[in-house]
Design brief:
It is a single chain. The protein is 24% helix and 26% strand. The protein has one domain (3-354): D-Amino Acid Oxidase, subunit A, domain 2 (D-Amino Acid Oxidase, Chain A, domain 2, 2-Layer Sandwich). It is built from seven helices and 20 strands. The mean pLDDT is 96. By secondary structure, the protein is α+β, with helices and mostly antiparallel strands. An eight-stranded mixed β-sheet has the order 6-7-5-15-16-17-14-18, covered by helices on one side. Strands 9-2-1-13-20-19 form a six-stranded mixed β-sheet, covered by helices on one side. Strands 3-8-4 form a three-stranded antiparallel β-sheet. A hairpin with a 7-residue loop joins strand 16 (237-240) and strand 17. The structure holds flavin-adenine dinucleotide. Flavin-adenine dinucleotide is lined by residues 7-13, 30-33, 40-42, 44, 47-48, 168-169, 191-195, 199, 211, 213, 298-300, 323, 325, 327-331.
Length: 372
């Protein structure tokens, strides 16, 4: 039986562990905090699942494949994880990204509709489309209950035989050391999210930033899935309808300050709160003046070009580095696990876009509003 140690039980590591144990691998997961914990990127309550990725076929297909796998996980665990709200993209100009997304989605048979700005009024109880060029609606997209998903993934992996070790792992050549105990396996995968660069400082170049999310009290009619998830592409703001009573989510998506995922204080910035309120007032006038009912702060781990990192260690061929979620990785979790398993088996080679080493700045897989 092949064996693997997976470090990290976020959506990347957890999904991979579940996939491997389900395929008959002997799997040990090392996690320093409980799965779904508040410090991890996968510990947020909700994450958008959208398929549009401009002209990028691979990510579009991966996100759509992931939806089927999320649905499978729902059936296997009896847990509602997918909130089928749709996702609406707002564009202030026709610069090509929306048009390319529409083309790729159509080619892949994924539902997509182009709406005029005033048609936003049929999606939201109060909507001001002034200044918009168009809206792109992905009716099959939606929201994932991320924290719940992260927890049930680990629970199912354990149920299927994965061993869980609680502790902080350190790399030691081909092996993993947890509080003095050395763990060895045929394959070791470091899926350590925002901690990955600190574990492999010579190899991994990730910028870790604090991203603040705001929840505003909203009246009846603003709940998901009635109200779609939304992304204002050019203004760099996204959100979703109230989910599970937590308020209407609004988040300015420009990169936040550098952040230490262990020691950093999770106190959301007042400046970003102000920006979130300004956006609500502009686009959803009925929510102007809504009370702030909660905040969350989570780490982005950003690669230079927003492509994920999936690469073997250059000196230890059986050790893999898996991360660089770059603010858009959650939705792909189970599809990435499906992609990575044959890499570990040596049946497939990873695409060089996921490799180590310098990458050109830019990318635009989360959205091209990324600033330096
Ligand atoms: C505010 C915010 C909004 C986002 N919105 C979206 C969205 O709408 N849609 C989307 O698809 N994605 C979104 N993302 C991105 C997505 O959440 C991440 O890409 C994804 O969760 C990354 O998962 P991960 O498993 O790589 O990292 P994590 O979830 O951070 O997991 C890494 C795990 O490794 C563990 N670990 C690290 N080091 C060690 C060690 N040495 N020993 C033991 N354990 C260790 C950590 O404790 C942690 O549990 C968002 C992210 C943030 C922060």
């Amino acid at each position: 039986m092949r064996s693997a140690v997976v470090v990290g039980a976020g959506v990347f590591g957890g999904s991979l562990a579940l996939r491997l144990v389900s395929s008959g691998w002997d799997v040990t997961v090392v996690e320093q905090y409980p799965p779904g914990h508040v410090r991890a990127a996968s510990g947020g309550e909700s994450r958008l699942i959208r398929f549009a990725h401009g002209d990028n076929d691979w990510y579009t297909r991966s996100a759509r494949r992931a939806l089927d796998l999320w649905r499978e996980l729902e059936r296997e665990t009896g847990t509602e994880l997918v909130v089928p709200s749709g996702v609406a993209w707002f564009f202030t100009e026709a610069h090509g990204w929306g048009e390319e997304s529409e083309r790729v989605l159509t080619e892949q048979g994924i539902a997509v509709e182009r709406l005029a700005p005033d048609e936003g009024a049929r999606l939201f109880p109060s909507f001001d489309g002034r200044g918009l060029d168009s809206i792109l609606l992905e009716p099959e997209a939606g929201v994932l209950r991320a924290r719940d998903a992260t927890r049930v993934i680990s629970e199912l992996a354990i149920e299927r035989g994965a061993h869980f070790v609680t502790g902080k792992a350190e790399p030691d050549g081909d092996a993993v050391v947890v509080e003095g105990e050395r763990l060895e396996a045929d394959r070791v995968v470091w899926a350590a999210g925002a901690w990955l660069a600190g574990l492999f400082p010579e190899l991994v170049d990730l910028r870790v930033t604090r991203q603040d999310v705001y929840f505003f009290g909203a009246p009846a009619g603003w709940q998901a899935p009635t109200v779609p998830g939304w992304v204002d592409f050019d203004n760099g703001v996204y959100g979703l309808g109230e989910l599970d009573g937590r308020g209407f989510k609004t988040s300015p998506d420009r990169e936040g300050p550098a952040f230490d995922p262990d020691q950093g204080e999770r106190v959301a910035s007042e400046e970003k709160e102000h920006q979130a309120r300004e956006y609500l007032t502009l686009r959803f006038p009925a929510l102007a003046g809504s009370p702030l009912v909660g905040t969350r702060s989570c780490p982005y781990s950003l690669t230079e070009d927003t492509n994920f990192l999936i690469a073997p260690h250059p000196e230890h061929e059986h050790v893999w580095l898996f991360g660089g979620g770059s603010g858009h990785g959650f939705k792909h979790g189970p599809a990435l696990a499906e992609y990575v398993e044959p890499l570990l088996d040596g049946e497939e080679e990873p695409d060089p876009v996921f490799g180590l080493g310098a990458r050109p700045p830019g990318g635009g897989l989360r959205a091209p509003w990324i600033e330096r």
